[in-house]
Amino acid sequence: MHIHAYEKLWLAASVLLILLLLGSVTYGAVGPGVAMVSDSEPAIDAGGLDEDERFSEPRVEQVGENEYEAYVVAFQFGFQPDPIVVPEDSTVTFYVTSRDVIHGFEVAGTNANTMVVPGEVAEITVETDGAAEYGIVCNEYCGAGHHGMEGKLEVVS
Ligand code: CUA
Fold first, then answer.
1. I need a surface site. Which of 60, 138, 144, 154 has the fewest CB within 10 A?
2. Residues 96-140: pLDDT tens digits?
C-alpha cells in the first residue's frame, strides 16, 4: 500500500514537472522593448566555469549582423557582466549559468525570465527594440544577499 501511494506521488510530480517545463518554453511576447522568444537548458560543470571557454570571461559577443550572444554568470550575490550591454534592434541569446546555488535571471518589466541552476545553462533569446535600461533581478531565494542581488541590462543605440 505504501509503495503504491509513493509511486502515485512520483507520477504526479513528474507530470507537474513536465507541465512546468512546457510552460517555460511557451511564453508569449509581451513587455516593452525586450521579448523572450525561447529558452532551453544544456549541461555544464558548475565548479569548472573558470576553465569554460564561454563562462571564464562573461561577456557579450556579436555573432551576426544583428545577433549577439551574452554569456552570463550568476553568483551569490550578483551577475557578471554588470552591466550587460547590448544594441537596440537586435536578437540577443543569453546563456546563463550559476557558479554556486540556484538563482533567477529576470529582466525586470519584461517576460524574459528563467531559473539559473548550477550545472545547467539556461538559454533565453530576446529581441530588443529601443535604447533603454533594465534591472536584472534574481527571483529564487539564494541566501542572505538574495534581496540585493541585481544586475543591469543596457540596451544602447
Ligand atoms: Cu540569487 Cu536570489
1. 144
2. 999 999 999 999 999 999 999 999 999 999 999 999 999 999 999
Find how far residue 74's CA is from the centre of its chain: 9
Q: What is the pLDDT of residues 70-104, one digit of tens each?
A: 999 999 999 999 999 999 999 999 999 999 999 99
Is the CB of 103 within 6 Å of ligand 1? yes
Question: Could you identify the atom of ligand 1 that is nearest to the CA of residue 74?
Answer: 1
| Alpha carbon distance 119, 150 (integer Å) | 21
Query: Looking at per-residue confidence, does 18 or 82 come out higher?
Result: 82
Which CATH entry fits the domain spanning 30-156: 2.60.40.420, 3.20.20.60, 2.60.40.10, 3.40.50.1260? 2.60.40.420
Instruction: Select from 97, 112, 96 the least CA-distant residue to 27.
Output: 112
ipTM score of complex: 0.99
With cell 531565494, the residue in question is: 141
Q: Calculate mean pLDDT across residues 54-66.
A: 97
Catalytic residue set:
75, 77
Report the SS3 class of residue 121.
Answer: coil
Does ligand 1 come within 6 angstroms of the Cβ of 96? no
Q: Is 84 in contact with 60 (CB distance < 8 Å)?
A: yes
